[in-house]
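Lab notebook, page 48
Experiment: co-folding of the full assembly
Goal: obtain a model of how the components sit together before planning crosslinking
Operator: M.T.
Materials (sequences as entered):
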Amino acid sequence: MEEKLERKLEKKLEAVTLNYEAYFSEKALGMKASEIRELLKLVESSEIISLAGGLPNPETFPKDLITKLAQKAIEEHGNAALQYGTTKGYTPLRLEIAEMLRKRYGIPISKVDIMITAGSQQGLDLIGRVFINPGDIIVVEAPTYLAALQSFRYYDPQFIQIPLDDEGMRIDLLEEKLKELKAQGKKVKLVYTIPTFQNPGGVTMSKERRKRLLELASEYDFLIIEDGPYNELRYRGEEIPPIKYWDEEGRVIYLGTFSKIFAPGFRVAWIAAEPHFIRKLEIAKQGIDLCTNVFGQVIAAEYLKGGYLDKHIEKIRAFYKPKLEIMLDALEKYMPEGVKWTKPDGGMFVWVTVPEGIDTKEMFEKAVAKGVAYVPGEAFFADRGVKNTMRLNFTYVEDEKIVEGIKRLAEALKEAMKA
Amino acid sequence: MEEKLERKLEKKLEAVTLNYEAYFSEKALGMKASEIRELLKLVESSEIISLAGGLPNPETFPKDLITKLAQKAIEEHGNAALQYGTTKGYTPLRLEIAEMLRKRYGIPISKVDIMITAGSQQGLDLIGRVFINPGDIIVVEAPTYLAALQSFRYYDPQFIQIPLDDEGMRIDLLEEKLKELKAQGKKVKLVYTIPTFQNPGGVTMSKERRKRLLELASEYDFLIIEDGPYNELRYRGEEIPPIKYWDEEGRVIYLGTFSKIFAPGFRVAWIAAEPHFIRKLEIAKQGIDLCTNVFGQVIAAEYLKGGYLDKHIEKIRAFYKPKLEIMLDALEKYMPEGVKWTKPDGGMFVWVTVPEGIDTKEMFEKAVAKGVAYVPGEAFFADRGVKNTMRLNFTYVEDEKIVEGIKRLAEALKEAMKA
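Observation: model returned without errors.
Model output:
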């Protein structure tokens, strides 16, 4: 049946009866399918070991618990859980999240208000809608989260890239840039950062840089969008509080999500920020989807209320830690001279830099022929200026396959380096 | 705990540390909280009978079935249901919806492709994003769905209103308008209609008008956005197929939802349209939320696959039918001379027109003082030009309260008419 429909649709796609393009908005005409997604369609064969994904491992989904919580949600809160909810989100969930921010990070709940979003992706789009005028200057890390670029790009900002090193965003270079812009009479509106276990970089911003970034925000009057999806996925090293922890002036808009500490399938995430900002984001959300799916919100609230989070985070950490180690060991063992990679303390990704002159997008098909896939790094740069990098995921693939995948990748790289 | 947070937040809202407005985009500065929502905050007392809502009755939620389906979703499809999904939607659900469109409405599945959205509201926003350039002319019914106006308005269209009568949109007046615009060298881009049991009007577009609307779409080259949330809520009269049924050229973009035939809390809805249009809507959705909550989609798919829909629709109809009758009888019995109302064959709303000169928004507080609430009609008009109307909901309130509510409303009206 599935194939039948798809065949009919393909036929239909050939049978043009309207001049479809004529109806699209100018913005829509400029929207292109992500080439990464197109590339990755090549990878659906089970022969290929894909290190390209960005998915949590389903082994970490607490299925029995979710069954129990879903039942509880209906039995005890059915009328609310199955009904429309408020745009801002299910109040008991907002309260639980506020409590969690206080307990886990020391962020006083009186400092923030919480709005629930349909994944952090919706949060990013809403932030674009509420804060970005065409031409506004947005600072992003280089590399940065692909889909954040996609969300923001719709609002026509001007991106400025600041490179990462092992301690996260190069705040010294940011400061130089800010001075330079100021001299030109220009101003940065937002700085977008994933400070902890960055996607795709894997690196974590040091405590000193976090504080310095806040000082700069105050001095140069910009807001910080802090995206924290991986915060809890720490496998080694010391916890560092979110930037929001030091935020006295309310300049940090913090994005958190249940996707990595519970399950992505609920699409339940949150924005924690100044009540004034939340109020405007709420109004913007009214026109977008009325409310986030309430059933998922009630289940997430029960998850926090039941005190399951801490124990489950331990389980997730224990599950991913060896995978990270296996990947780092395999990289050490098999990668040829001249290839470098980050050594993350957590998260889901390792970032690999290969010798200059090798274009990882051009190399992609050859790697797939050898039975391994990765994400070519180019698309993670706002200006697409860097060709010799790639992102590897270690959370999804079985342990043995990580080793075999790195082996194959090393072979593909050796050939490319010879050519 | 709830109150504690809210108190702290209110305090915070007073303690301004940043010049918040300075950071908002120009569009965001123009976004205002819906005054309707603000008005309705007055109505939270249990003493007041609210006919203002737009909610399905939770008595119609099949709770036991949902518990069973949620369990099944996790047991049989847990890895998919709890994971990220594709932007277009969970394939088994898309197939089931296509099947349903074929069986219930006779729309051949080869004619459409389906994309799942987070409620029809997201569908409306996506349509705005993909089709509306600033200044584009959008025809809406007068009155029309409030939140559709809100969604479209973000994209800066020019609205043209076409009045309703008992057979839905006045297609003759639309044709006049189209001719007039053509003479001016202008063109309508989209016509937005809720043809069946219109919100807020309650009326249904006749078969003849549906066909004529399509002819006009072809002649004047516009697209039709057909919003069909209430299609299945028919309590009397003969079924009329959706406009999409007669759509040979692919000009109709159809919006359907599970909110009224299952439960709104899942926020699972769909757009059925030409594959070329769906493809662009899909790309637009990538930047907005990656995917609709998968858990809800899997449950909805199991709901359709298990064949529960037909029987459940019968139950919903049996539950709402007497409520509609009770409201219509009470209006007949209690309303003073000079007050008119629609006689819907289904849906959730009755639309009341009171004598000119009475402003239902001004009258609202007095009605609340008498213990009844409604939605003043003004906001349902794109130009806010009509003051003497109101929307009444009959699905949510208990039967006795409908009668008592109408009695109180009649009293408030009599006083206003005397004044």
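Interpretation: The radius of gyration of chain A is 22 Å.
Next step: discuss with group before ordering constructs.
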